[in-house]
Design a protein that fits this description.
It is a single chain. This protein is mostly helical and 170 residues long. The protein has a domain of 91 residues. Strands 1-2 form a two-stranded antiparallel sheet. Strand 1 and strand 2 form a beta hairpin. Helix 4 runs antiparallel to helix 5 and helix 5 runs antiparallel to helix 6. The longest helix has 35 residues. The chain starts with a helix and ends with a helix.
Length: 170
């Protein structure tokens, strides 16, 4: 009688795509084809689910003035990755406008040109993703861009006044 513990061992599966002679393995090609079919089936079922009866009564994109390829905001899920990207760019812009001290000097670091570029990037991101974001993501981006532009204008005005005072004293 065989020991049941030995039957519970592990199975080694060769997942290499090529044989020792450098030829493409037939079972690797077959496995890849099955994976592609599974992915296509999954994508088709996901697409069919979004066009299902729960969206009955939702106007077509051409009826809403929406561009082709844009998803209705109600069907797009919020993206944590997108929110993290916006947060990263926002923090960089804020840091360039004196929101953080330089670690070496301990003084506020102001780079208005750099801040303007980051704000412009966020504005371009807002334009490029218009109509393709979840409402929450779109609102976040609009709020951040507006707030950064307002702060940029205030800091630019203060910097211009400081430069005028400095040049008037000399």
């Amino acid at each position: 009688m065989a020991d049941p513990k030995q039957d519970e061992g592990f199975k080694v599966v060769d997942r290499r795509l090529f044989t020792e002679e450098g030829e493409l393995r037939e079972d690797a090609v077959e496995q890849e084809r099955r994976e592609e079919e599974a992915a296509a089936t999954k994508a088709a079922s996901a697409q069919a689910a979004t066009k299902g009866p729960h969206l009955a009564g939702v106007p077509a994109p051409h009826e809403t003035g929406q561009k082709a390829g844009e998803a209705p905001a109600e069907t797009v899920a919020p993206s944590r990755s997108f929110q993290m990207l916006v947060d990263f760019l926002t923090r960089n812009a804020a840091a360039m406008m004196g929101g953080m001290a330089d670690p070496q000097t301990g003084k506020a670091y102001v780079d208005l040109e750099g801040a303007r570029e980051v704000i412009d990037m966020l504005d371009a991101l807002r334009e490029a993703t218009r109509g393709n974001l979840a409402k929450v993501d779109e609102d976040l981006l609009v709020e951040v861009v507006g707030s950064l532009k307002l702060t940029f204008m205030e800091i630019s005005k203060a910097a211009a006044e400081a430069m005028a005072k400095k040049s008037g004293k000399k």
